[in-house]
Design goal:
about 15% helix; alpha/beta; 10-stranded mixed sheet; Glutaconate Coenzyme A-transferase
């Protein structure tokens, strides 16, 4: 069956390595901090000026002065630092972030990402996504494989305004784990109970399928 948002975050947490500095975008990516292995040391960065974010607070323990870029209340870990926005973006633009985890509305088979605007709809702004995708060497996207109408969001070419070009390395959707290779999506893992045929039918872009595709392990 298709993964929940929490399960997508749990699978992505396996990509986070000891010593990493990681930026978490809004939406599903913010859940990743809840699932990182306890025996590794990771610094989560938020572009509003926090380095050292922890898991979400328990109900009743929220501090309204501690928020992430999506204005959600957060916790901080021992040694956390608070900096101004200019310093925060210097970390990003200086390529000091090892891994960026973003949500997306569309991803193309050559690694383009669209995640900031739907024409005709009001948006507050592009946020830090364009800086993140331009500066990061390792970008993982957390997303739903299809939209509410059932149409694929993994396309040959993005139809929405682009956030970045040829930058996505890996995608974890509610159906599958895929990498971007040779101008195609390569199927690496499938969600438990989801068939390769279901993933193929839900993917508009070129899809490389080689050998037996294992189910995800959390």
């Amino acid at each position: 069956m298709a993964l929940s948002k929490e399960q997508i975050a749990q699978r992505i947490a396996k990509e986070v390595k000891d010593g990493y500095f990681v930026n978490l975008g809004i939406g599903i990516p913010t859940l990743v901090a809840n699932f990182v292995q306890k025996d590794i040391e990771v610094d989560f960065q938020s572009e509003n000026g926090v380095l050292g974010m922890g898991p979400f607070p328990f109900e009743g323990e929220e501090d309204p002065d501690l928020i992430n870029a999506g204005k959600q209340t957060i916790t901080t870990l021992p040694g956390a630092a608070f900096v101004d926005s200019a310093m925060s973006f210097s970390m990003i633009r200086g390529q000091h972030v090892d891994l960026t985890i973003l949500g997306a509305m569309e991803v193309s088979q050559n690694g383009d990402i669209a995640n900031w605007k739907i024409p005709g709809k009001m948006v507050k702004g592009m946020g830090g996504a364009m800086d993140l995708v331009a500066s990061a060497e390792n970008i993982i996207v957390a997303m739903m494989h299809t939209n509410r109408a059932g149409a694929s969001k993994l396309l040959k070419d993005c139809t929405l305004p682009l956030t970045g070009v040829n930058c996505v390395k890996k995608i974890v959707s509610n159906l599958a784990v895929m990498s971007i290779e040779n101008n195609s999506f390569r199927l690496l893992e499938r969600a438990p109970g989801v068939s390769v045929e279901e993933i193929k039918n839900a993917t508009e872009g070129n899809l490389i399928i080689e050998g037996d595709i294992p189910e995800m392990i959390f």
